[in-house]
Amino acid sequence: MSDAALARRALRCLDLTELSDSCSDALIDRLCRKALTPHGPVAAVCVWPQFVTRARDALEGTPVRIATVVNFPRGDKDIEKVIEDAEEALGDGADEIDCVLPYDALQRGETAFVADFLSGVREVVGSGRTLKAILETGALGASDRIEAAARLAIASGADFVKTSTGKSRVSATPEAAEAILAAIRASGKPAGLKVSGGIRTLDCARTYLDLADRVMGAGWATPKTFRIGASALYESLVAAIEAPGTADR
Q1: 162 catalytic, yes or no?
Q2: Does residue 77 carry a catalytic annotation?
Q3: pLDDT 10s digits, 151-161
Q4: 137-160: b or e for each residue (b if 16 or more CB lie within 10 Å)?
Q5: Among 3, 81, 218, 225, which residue is least crowded by beta carbons within 10 Å?
Q6: Which residue among the candidates 162, 167, 203, 224 is catalytic per the annotation?
Q7: What is the pLDDT of residues 88-132, one digit of tens each?
């Protein structure tokens, strides 16, 4: 696949993200303008809950979905607060909820608590909208732990399993993504993978798309099953698409 074709494929799967501590209305407006590229829309924008309404208004009538985060980034909030936050975000117009799995509790062996936690968020999200479970794979460490966490997330109703918050020292890695894909394949369910954190170049995007093709089969990675959570990657993708000699690719 040419660089331009790969970049177009990755752009369609991009969750264009603004979760900086200095986020503002102006940054959200800029993010939403970027989401509607001349080369087609990205899959979603992912913003702080307080900016969901602004993003919804900016992107109303477009295919770009509005995602937000709950229990973010530490995964240590009370379930009642997380459900309240999710309900409010959905009421404001969010299409997708990216929820941090209580990974510290999971590492203490509290699997029933984690399953109940995610199931509770799933119930609030309901059908027709998307729940992504963020594992924080850098904290979980070993591939077998990551795969077990992904299996639990899928069994508890997650539509996507996401590697990372992007706020940890270790974010997405190919090894973590492969462990999640193994869990998705074993589940037999139509769950997807979202890789997030530290993905800035076309070569990085190629690594994860090639991995998805190898594990799940060519053509599996579409916006319905595969996302890349990034902001820095956007410029690299657009540059590859607009490079001289790529217009006809």
Answers
A1: yes
A2: no
A3: 999 999 999 99
A4: bbbbeebebbbbbbbbbbebbbbb
A5: 218
A6: 162
A7: 999 999 999 999 999 999 999 999 999 999 999 999 999 999 999
